[in-house]
């Protein structure tokens, strides 16, 4: 009986290998983007950090379809400008009627499936680039996920517009540590990074999300609910966009518990919960789009170094398609930090430039 089982296993393995060899070779495609911006900002703490800024990446995608219909591929992102990792995201995926599996370094489903308010300018109020132009305003983020980590991810197939996903990253040191990030003014610039000690601590990360997207007579709707556990706490949020005619209106909300990213051995937690929301409206007219968005965050932390802070920001964005893959984009923005027991600091500025998608 054992010999029969071994023989059957060998035949099955041989058959699978033969099917794999009969499939088409993996084809490689290139993509990516380049952004070049010029801007001006003024604030209570001084002028813009840099009048000229840029961001560029090149994507390498390889894919084949096996004889059994399963898609197998890889995605690699090469950073054009970086002082640390030259490779941003890199992962392998398997896709078919069963859904999609990904394994490698990439974002969690809580990040990739989330929906936030519409915005078309280069400086967004929600997890945008406002903090890249000024130190006077903290980063507002309704989706403060753990970012690129070595993880495994599963997406279900779409059932009538519904889809769910789950991600898991272990506490391997290759996933880095969870550290606080503050600006030169002492205000928080990343609500997603807090740790219980200065040495840092690696923790398991479990993320989940569910989303729905549908088109109806005269309008469309997209909604999401997502969350993530790290350490002793969680963050979670919801978002929705509604489109009708040339208009899109949307909003999102996120909540971070004070012990998110804190290990059970920590002496104390972050000192308070954080709540954030955004709201925006966009209008598209042929090649041009315009958006107005607002965001607010109440960071309730009260520690020896960081006081509770209320942050709000507004962005007026413009995008105009000059051709296939070429768009001119501009933003007029304003933001303000109100630190409890301290002074208000505000900033405003304008940014314009080109984005190339290829």
UniProtKB/TrEMBL annotation:
Position of the signal peptide: 1-22
Keyword Signal on entry: yes
Q: Where is the Porin domain?
A: 10-328
Q: Which UniProt keywords apply?
A: Signal
Q: Which InterPro entries match?
A: Gram_neg_porin_domain, Porin_dom_sf
Q: Give a yes or no for keyword Transcription in this entry.
A: no
Q: Which Gene3D superfamilies match?
A: Porin
Please give one Pfam family short name: Porin_4
The name on file for this protein is Porin
What organism is listed for this UniProt entry?
Thalassospira indica
């Amino acid at each position: 009986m054992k010999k029969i089982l071994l023989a059957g296993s060998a035949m099955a393995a041989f058959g699978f290998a033969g099917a794999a060899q009969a499939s088409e070779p993996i084809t490689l495609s290139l993509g990516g983007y380049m952004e070049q911006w010029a801007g001006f900002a003024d604030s209570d703490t001084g002028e813009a950090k840099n009048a000229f800024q840029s961001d560029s990446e090149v994507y390498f995608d390889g894919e084949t379809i096996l004889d059994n219909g399963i898609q197998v591929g890889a995605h690699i992102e090469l950073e054009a400008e970086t002082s640390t990792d030259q490779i941003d995201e890199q992962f392998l995926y398997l896709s078919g009627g069963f859904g999609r599996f990904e394994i490698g370094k990439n974002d969690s489903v809580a990040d990739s499936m989330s929906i936030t308010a519409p915005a078309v300018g280069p400086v967004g109020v929600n997890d945008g680039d406002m903090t890249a132009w000024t130190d006077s305003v903290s980063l507002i983020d309704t989706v403060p996920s753990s970012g690129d980590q070595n993880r495994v991810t599963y997406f279900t197939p779409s059932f009538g517009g519904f889809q769910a996903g789950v991600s898991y990253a272990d506490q391997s040191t290759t996933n880095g540590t969870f550290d606080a990030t503050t600006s030169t003014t002492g205000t928080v610039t990343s609500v997603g990074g807090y740790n219980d000690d200065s040495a840092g601590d690696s923790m398991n990360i479990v993320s989940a999300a569910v989303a729905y997207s549908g088109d109806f007579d005269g309008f469309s709707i997209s909604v999401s609910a997502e969350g993530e556990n790290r350490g002793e706490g969680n963050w979670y949020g919801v978002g929705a966009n509604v489109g009708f005619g040339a208009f899109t209106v949307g909003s999102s909300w996120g909540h971070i518990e004070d012990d998110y990213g804190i290990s059970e051995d920590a002496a104390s937690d972050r000192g308070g919960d954080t709540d954030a929301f955004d709201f925006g409206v966009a209008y598209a007219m042929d090649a041009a789009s315009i958006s107005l968005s607002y965001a607010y965050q109440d960071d309730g932390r009260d520690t020896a170094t960081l006081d509770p802070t209320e942050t709000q920001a507004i962005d007026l964005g413009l995008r105009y398609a000059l051709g296939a893959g070429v768009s001119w984009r501009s933003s007029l923005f304003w933001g303000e930090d109100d630190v409890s027991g301290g002074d208000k600091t505000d900033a405003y500025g304008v940014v314009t430039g080109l984005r190339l998608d290829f």
